[in-house]
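Re: beginner question about structure tokens

> Can someone show what the tokenized structure looks like for a real chain? I only ever see the sequence side.

Sure, here's an example I had lying around. Input first:
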Amino acid sequence: MAEGFEPGPRDPQPFSVPMSLTPSYDVIELLPPGAADRLRALRQRFHDLNKLIPKFEEIREASDARIQAEQRLARLQAHQQEGGFNLPETDGRVIEQRRLLDKLTDHLKRLSELKETRSATWRAASHVLTAVENWLKNGVPPGVVLQDIEGKPPQLLKNESLPDGILRLQRRGRELKADFNRIRSAPYPSAHVRAKIRQEVEALATRGTPVVSDVLEHDRSVVWPMQRLQGSIVNAQVPSFAVTEVPDVLAWFAFVHKDALLASLDTLVSEEADDAAALSATERETRAAVVMGDLLAVEYDEARLVWQAQADKLPSEHRSDCAPQAI
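And the corresponding structure tokens:
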């Protein structure tokens, strides 16, 4: 503003409304063009499916209409002393009212079932969208650049429909996940376990070694291994804890009876070991990586078939636990 200038009533006034200078961030900016279109499609499907769900007001109106029809039928058949017309079942007015009640009952039932079915489909799409956006926010390692890939299109088997192909790939995915769980839950080789136990007992025995140098050099007492313990104090006005030191009996026992302790633990290992099913740490990681690679390839194919099914207007949704990068 120039020096000495006073704005008049028609001149633009200085903008004084609080505003944020931080640009809004959308995870879609992380994606290459093809994947960005997919995310837009997921968002649009989420909104479109929500619009297809019968609204609460519509169901309430249908329920109110049914209740009113039921009340009118009851009045037609009620005794005159109860304010009714005491009409028999064969009366045309009763027959017509019952027909209307049945029609309104069926309409309400269809609306309720439609709401349940479409709400389930919408929730499935919501879970998928949430999983993908959460992965983009928190799952992509820093510095990783996402790129579109155009792999070989998945092939259906002979006489296999598109929905059947999706189900086949989903079954294969479940089999691979079961393989992964078996790998992760496999025991470790007994030799590895024995070596680790020996290392642990050796460390325990070292910690439990008494110190006699004070007796030798200063005619004092043996320094026994001690253990620091901490505990909470209950019924205190403010949260409190207490600290004390007690003799480290387990460590001292390992120092005195190390060989016997190792022998007893070795017996336990022999009783429980299953070396036929055991996997070393290296084997575990290698096999798990292969299975997860196969699973990702299957889920890429599954996701492409689901996209194709949706384009063909077939009822199909992505799984929320499908790999987000595949979707």
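Each token stands for a local structural state, so reading them left to right follows the chain. Residues 27-148 form one domain.
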